[in-house]
Each structure stands twice: as structure tokens, then as C-alpha cells.
Amino acid sequence: MKARRTNSREKILAAAADVARETGPGSLSLDAVASRAGVSKGGLLYNFPTKAKLMQALVEDYLSAFQQALEAARTNGVSGESPLAAYIRLSAEHAEESKPSATWIFSAIAEDPDFLTPIKSFRRQVFERLKQETPNLKALLVCYLAIEGLRSMNLFGSDILSADERRLLISTLLEIAE
Amino acid sequence: MKARRTNSREKILAAAADVARETGPGSLSLDAVASRAGVSKGGLLYNFPTKAKLMQALVEDYLSAFQQALEAARTNGVSGESPLAAYIRLSAEHAEESKPSATWIFSAIAEDPDFLTPIKSFRRQVFERLKQETPNLKALLVCYLAIEGLRSMNLFGSDILSADERRLLISTLLEIAE
DNA sequence: CTTACTGTACCGTCTGGACGGTCTTGTCAA
DNA sequence: TTGACAAGACCGTCCAGACGGTACAGTAAG
Predict the structure, then answer these.
(1) pLDDT digit string (tens) for A63-112?
(2) How many CA atoms lie within 13 A of B52 on its CB side?
(3) With contact defined as beta carbons under 8 Å apart, do B108 and B115 qualify?
(4) CA→C1' distance for A129 and D7 (Å)
(5) If one looks up domain A51-177 in CATH, what number appears?
(6) Which residue of A has its CA nearest to B173?
(7) Distance from CA of residue B44 to its chain's centroid?
(8) Would you call B169 and A142 a contact, using CB atoms and an 8 Å cutoff?
(9) In Å, what is the separation between the CA of A61 and the C1' of C9?
(10) Which of A24, A153, A172 sits opposite B142 (nearest CB)?
(11) Sign of the CA dihedral A72, A73, A78, A84?
(12) What is the DSSP string of chain B?
């Protein structure tokens, strides 16, 4: 990541995420993103020569951000906390954010399902690592899947769980994880 | 559901699901569905006067099929089985099917996110009902979310769980549910 | 005569992308 | 210090193609 004079790139990525969330994943057009980012279409295409590149950047940014947060949570987390517990805690916090954060994934899938492959392989890596670090396979499976369910509900904007229920769920998962 | 001379309607719905799964959710065009269903575009629009109606039908069919299966599992299920256990078992079987079954949901979301509302309210109903029938709230939360996670992984075509792991997960959930 | 289509031709809109032009910034010789 | 100049960052316009949807004439079955 080299230093850049302009921050157009970040502005554009943020704008893309906003547009996808607000006007629906199907309406993620280059024009919409450009005007939202306060950039002309030409400028947008200068930064991301094709729509696919934009999507790709969205995915990569998302993944690397999560990875960094995960690494930080592992090292700076509560002492004596298992890696699985750290994963649960981080994911829960992430799902607690008001913005659904990743609606753009739907746009990417609609554009081309292959955009999922990097995400899938990333997930697989995380899971395999957790599997090596967690003695209790049953606990891992239940917790990992439940977190995946939480992620899914957040992604789809489902709100069938109350805040209390979410808290209870997380604390239960943390119990199971230890 | 009145008796129909023709089965074009079902053929078209199946074709739409197939197209979404095979050529990607973004390529679900009326032309593609028509040719896949072995029907002219005129014929397609005769059955579903607009693309939105097609999506709506897809959603409604999907939901009513699940509801029927759920009702059947409740009454004809293993005797002494709790409603939560029945729900787990049914969802697990459903997720076991080779075809991802519901990729078309992505098309629907891309078309108009509002197509999610009937699905969301259906899920909410199911959850509320389970909540009344299940004494152990913790168990319900963990199991329901884990199933949701399974559903999500199936939807996204993720295969990070081996068949053995899936089986272990389900049996663990069933233990928790009782 | 109605139902359930087929087939074709067509329209308006939207979108990704190409292209040429413009403004800004940094560099370097004189 | 200044002026020429090249590269980087961005603007605005245009266009071909795809898509949803309409219109309509024809037809085979019951």
C-alpha cells in the first residue's frame, strides 16, 4: 500500500458500499457510484478501469480489513481467551454495527458469482486454523455455524433477534467455546 | 391451487431457478428463462405478465413448500421429538440437497430488495412459534442460529464443512435441542 | 368461441465502456 | 527563479448492446 496523493479510491469504495445499501444491490451502476463519490464517471473509470475491478477491490478491502481485525483481536484480546472466543467476539461486534456493511456482496454476486471464490477460500482458511487451535470439535462447529448464521441475518437485514437475545446468544457461545 | 391443463407455470419456475443457478443470478433475464423453459417469450409473459410477478411466484412457491414440509415433519415426525428438533432435522435435510436450490434469491434481491420482506416475516413467524414451544431459550438461540448458518453456507455454495462434520454438527444440535 | 400459447417485430431505457479533452502537480534545465 | 514539459488525475460526451416490456397476427386444441 503505497502513499497516495488523493483518496479518491477510498471515497469511491465507500460510495459504492453506500449506494448498494441504500438504493439496492441491483442499482449499483457506475454512474450512481461516481456521482455519489463526487467524481465523474471518467474519474471513476480512471481509478477502476472496469466494473469488475471495482467489485474485486471491494472484496479485497473487506477481507483484508477483517483479517487485520482478527489478527489484532488475537494478540491484543482478553488474556487467556481462546482463538475461537476471540473470533466469536470479533464477529459479534462486527454484526452489531448499525450498517449492514456488506450489501454490496449481492451486487458482486449478481455481477459474477466468481467474486465469491476469494471470500470462500478466506473463510476456509480461517476455519481450518480454528480447527487446529480448538480441541473441542463439537463446540467449534456449533459456534462457527451460529456466528455464520448471525452474519447471514445481518447481511439480509433480518431483525428477528432482539438485542437481549443477541447478547444471550453471544454469551452462551462464549461459554461453549471455553 | 386450481387444477391446470398445462404445467407451463411450474416449468417456467423451475427453469428460472435453473438459470439463476447455472448462469449466475445476474443473468436471469426473461429471454433466458423462456428459452430454458422451452417456451416463447410471449408465452412466458402470458403466465407472468411482469418480471416482478415471476420473482414473487418464486418466493411464494419456495415459502409454501417449506411450510408444508415443516407441518408434515411436525405431525409425522419421530414421536416425542420436540418442535425445535423437527425444525433442525428438516432444515438439515433441506441443506443436504445437491442443488443450492435458492440461488434465485440473489436475483430477486438484485431486482428489488423488497422481495425479501415476505421471507423475513415468514422466518419471524417460525421463530416466534419455536420460542413459545421451546422451554430452553439458550438452546433455541444456538440451534436456530446454527441452522441459519448452515442455510447460508448452502446458499453461498460454501463447502468448508465435510459430510462428517455436518453430521456431527446436526447430531450435536439435536442433543442440545432436547 | 375461448384458452393457451407461438413468433416476430419493435420501442424506450439503462449501462458499461471508449475516447478525447482539461486541469493540476512535480521535475528539471537554463 | 522561472519556464517548459511530461505524467497523473479527472471531466463530459457518445455509443453499442442488452434488457424489460408491448403489440399483434397466427394457431392448435377442446
Answers:
(1) 999 999 999 988 876 777 899 999 999 999 998 887 777 899 999 999 89
(2) 5
(3) yes
(4) 46
(5) 1.10.357.10
(6) A142
(7) 23
(8) yes
(9) 47
(10) A172
(11) negative
(12) ----S--HHHHHHHHHHHHHHHH-GGG--HHHHHHHHT--HHHHHHHSSSHHHHHHHHHHHHHHHHHHHHHHHHHHS-TT--HHHHHHHHHHHHHHSSS---THHHHHHHH-GGGHHHHHHHHHHHHHHHHHH-S-HHHHHHHHHHHHHHHHHHHTT---S-HHHHHHHHHHHHHHH-
H helices of A24-103, in order, are 30-37, 41-47, 51-76, 83-96
**pLDDT digit string (tens) for A121-162?**
999 999 999 999 999 999 999 999 999 999 999 999 999 999
Question: Which protein residues have Cβ within 7 A of any strand D atom?
Answer: A 4-6, 8, 34, 38-47; B 27-32, 41-42, 45, 49-52
Query: Could you tell me which CATH class the domain B52-177 is placed in?
Result: mainly alpha
Query: Is B39's CB less than 7 Å from nucleic acid strand C?
Result: yes
Q: Where are the domains of chain A?
A: 51-177
